Amino acid sequence: MKIEQIYTGCLAQGAYYITSDGEAVIIDPLREIQPYLDRLERDGVKLRYIFETHFHADFVSGHVDLSKETGAPIVYGPNVACEFDCISAKDGQEFKIGNVTIKALHTPGHTMESTTYLLIDESGKDHAIFSGDTLFIGDVGRPDLAQKVAGMTQDQLAGILFHSLRDKIMTLADDVIVYPAHGAGSACGKNMSKETVSTIGNQKATNYALRADMTQEEFIKEVTDGLLPPPAYFSMNVAMNKSGYESFETVLHNGMKAIKATEFEAVAEETGALILDTRKSGEFAKGFIPQSINIGINGDFAPWVGTLIGDVKQPIILVTETGLEEETVTRLSRVGFDSIIGHLEGGFDAWQKATFEIDTVNRISAEQFSKEFNIKEDKVVDVRKESEYEAEHIEDAYSKPLAYINDWVKDINPNEHFYLHCAGGYRSMIAASILQARGFRNFSEVDGGFGAISKTNVPKSDFVCQSKILKA
User: Fold this and answer.
1) Which CATH number fits domain 246-353: 3.40.50.10140, 2.40.30.10, 3.40.250.10, 3.30.2310.20?
2) Looking at the domain 363-468, which fold is it?
3) What pTM value is reported for the model?
4) CB atoms within 10 A of CB 407
5) 75, 110, 300, 462: most buried by Cβ count inside 10 Å?
């Protein structure tokens, strides 16, 4: 028996590949399936099942395409309604794979179909669980995403999750390994560890939600406290995972269409496409096609696209670094953005050589900022998360998290200059591009963000003035 965790950092997502005696299963596969097909062929094993822990909200799974290519059935937990052929496993149902067994443990709460898969080894011993979004390392799944589908409140779902954890998971032996679907950075929980593997015993000792003396009321309060609204694309990804989707190969073929600089603007206007520039923030600041939005592929690219663009059906036309076109299309498809029309042939260099109009962002260094900044007169907009702001921030800065820019942009006075920063420059450049696309040019964006500013003599504080924090 072999278990491999296939972790995708930009999504903070773990898929699992398990083999035993010539047979294999894959749990929660990513959208692009060719790497799995290559692995199966190389290992000389037959794919018996594709297990899904639940209908994912933060990414589009590869279950439909993988099943079509291999003939392996898709397995979900109890009471699912798929618009494709799938097995709805009963609680406790067992599936034989080579010399091992996988047992479905129905663990509703995150969603009502959420199921944990228990791997029983060749000797009949409980070896590991694949807990999906039911149990993370250091956290548990948020119970608010399935409210509309389940017809329940988040408190009711949290109560169900409390019993799932205590009746199905905490009863397992302490040495059972825990393999979750996500790690730190995912929006499916709020307190996840950077670690992606643990044990039941370790989680009982360290996970706040698994305290032995915790009451149901305490659990509900702690699990639901501080939950941020889910990104808009989550519900669309759930729908795609339930009903199926266009083949990844088709999406890739469309996105790999090269559009010449001379045709680029006409194509964008004709299709209503958003111009998405995925270059590094420093390169974008020095020059970009007017009205472009910058979300760099070298950061949390796909989640930010999903959060800020929201509508997965929005047509997109890409500007990428040469050679990264396929990688960009692949990452977009993982979060359901399939309407990719093509990319600028030759990248931004081709646009510059054609001497077309370019725009720039007024980016200044932290040192320049420290010399210019007057705490009594100047305004600062901090687009980091609220928790980052609360830890330390520029004195009297306004907390305006990037995730809520569509809410707070209306509060900006276009005639009043302000400084804009995040932690390192990635998120503030996203904000800068959105602001400029909407006609705001009355700001200076600080290169290096708070990390660089903290090394200057600009006054800082960890005192939180509630009026300075945007509550969304």
Assistant:
1) 3.40.250.10
2) Oxidized Rhodanese; domain 1 (3.40.250)
3) 0.91
4) 13
5) 110
